[in-house]
Amino acid sequence: MLISGCNDSPANKPKIRFVDIDRVLKESGLAEQKTSHLKAVHESLLLGAEKAKANYNTLSKDKRQQAMAADAQMLNMQWRAEQQTANQLVLKAVKESAENWMKSGDVAAILPMQSALAVAAEGDITTDIAAQLKNKKVVFNELPQMTLKSDTVDVKKEPKKAK
């Protein structure tokens, strides 16, 4: 004789759905938006590097090497930060869409397809999420603006006093 609990019926089991995030990003256009933004960021950073190179000629050899190393490090840090922020903003849009679908779809959880070993076709909501995001425009940060520090400050000049 097999005895089961009151809540063991299939209707009471939590429903879980899965989303192929890479496919959502491609089909919705979010990947293209991110790529376009990062291309503009890269161009902005390259422009900043070119500005910095023009300043190197006025520096001594030692200071030039120091400045080049510091600038390269700063540009690389900025590039990584911009990539990370763009990724976070795009994934935030996917998460918000999934949360909205979850509220209307009566499900307990939506997980990335990449974390599943196998998924039944009815468990895959990738197409639905991609469709919701089709016209979504991600608002990325403004492009970074590079400013140069002047290494040739004349210490004899007194600072202007505030009026």
Quick tags:
disordered C terminus; elongated; 163 residues; Protein Binding, DinI Protein, Chain A; two-stranded parallel ribbon; mainly alpha; single chain
Describe this structure in words.
Helix content is 53%, strand content 5%. Helix 1 packs parallel to helix 4. The chain has a two-stranded parallel sheet with strand order 1-2. It has 163 residues and is mostly helical. The model is unreliable at 151-163 (pLDDT under 50). The radius of gyration is 26 Å and the shape is elongated. The chain has a single domain (14-132), classed as Skp domain (Protein Binding, DinI Protein, Chain A, 2-Layer Sandwich), CATH 3.30.910. It has 4 helices and 2 strands; from the N terminus they run βαααβα. The chain has helices at 21-28, 30-56, 61-105, 126-132, and strands spanning 16-19, 109-112.
Concise synopsis of the structure shown:
The chain is mostly helical and 163 residues long. The chain is built from 4 helices and 2 strands, in the order βαααβα. The protein has helices at 21-28, 30-56, 61-105, 126-132, and strands spanning 16-19, 109-112.
Overall 3D shape: elongated
The fraction of residues assigned to DSSP E strands is under 5%
Neighbour order of strands in the largest sheet: 1-2
Chain-averaged pLDDT: 84
The total count of helices amounts to 4
CATH topology: Protein Binding, DinI Protein, Chain A
Topology, element by element:
Blueprint: E1 16-19, H1 21-28, H2 30-56, H3 61-105, E2 109-112, H4 126-132
Parallel strand pairs: 1-2
